[in-house]
Amino acid sequence: MAIVGIVGGLGPESTIDYYRRILDAWARHDPSTAPSIVIDSLDVKRGLYLAEHDHAALAEYLLASLRRLAGAGVDFAAMTANTPHIVFDELAGRSPVPLLSIVEVCAHEARERGLRRLGLLGTRFTMEAAFYPAVCARYGVAVVSPREADRDWIHERYVGELLRGEFRDETRRGFTALVSRLRDEERIDGVILGGTELPLLLRAAVIAEVPALDTTALHVGAIVRRLRE
To answer: Are 112 and 140 in contact (CB under 8 A)?
Structure first.
């Protein structure tokens, strides 16, 4: 049986969600066994600081985790967050084990569903980086980020609430209203929940009449398929 390595802690709530979802997805295929998982939990505060100030140091921080996972004997690895994918290409080139990209999985799903113009929600680092637009473009999908004031609002709620495990109705309504504006103003036909805490807040498959791409669910599905191979 293959072993998956999880770079976790970025943040803790999503790491717990990944673990539960992997077990649940595996049980639907083979309830008589359980998958082999090794989790290396990092410091979310340090990760966010490096994402803002020092991408080279962020890559080294993540590579150290990947090396620990490789030492534990994993066959491949995945990061339980979207933001660290700002250095994914460097990590993929230097990692001692293959990496499974949450962005590639999401872009592939968008194409399979026939979606062509997606809104992107996540941390400020994710919304302002090029990795989602670049990867999705290879699949014929355009990505639209919210305007600056909305990005600031999202980031504040993400860091100040979601990463702390706080999921408020008021914040949920704010996100729903934002998706509605993106639908009307930017003509999006789907929305990427590009932060793995967002599906814990926004659990509906459709938000403001727009299909939601739950990046955690998509990533977990790909992890379990790889494990079963």
So the answer is: no
Tokens of 116: 């062509």
Backbone angles phi, psi at 206, to 5 degrees: -130, 130
| Residue linked to tokens 């534990």 | 72
Q: Is the pTM of this model over 0.90?
A: yes
> Six-digit token pair at 4?
């998956």
Cis omega (within 30 of 0) on the bond before 11? Answer: yes
28 contacts: CB under 8 Å, gap ≥ 6: none
Q: Which of 152, 130, 151, 133 is nearest to 142 (CA)?
A: 133
Residue with tokens 């066959």: 75
> In Å, how far from its chain's centre is CA 16?
14
Name the percent of the chain in helix, strand, coil, to the closest 5: 60, 15, 25
Entry field: residues in the chain: 229
Q: For 163-182, how does the pLDDT look when each residue is reduced to its tens digit (9 = 90+)?
A: 999 999 999 999 999 999 99
Sign of the dihedral defined by the CA atoms of residues 23, 70, 125, 218, in that order: negative
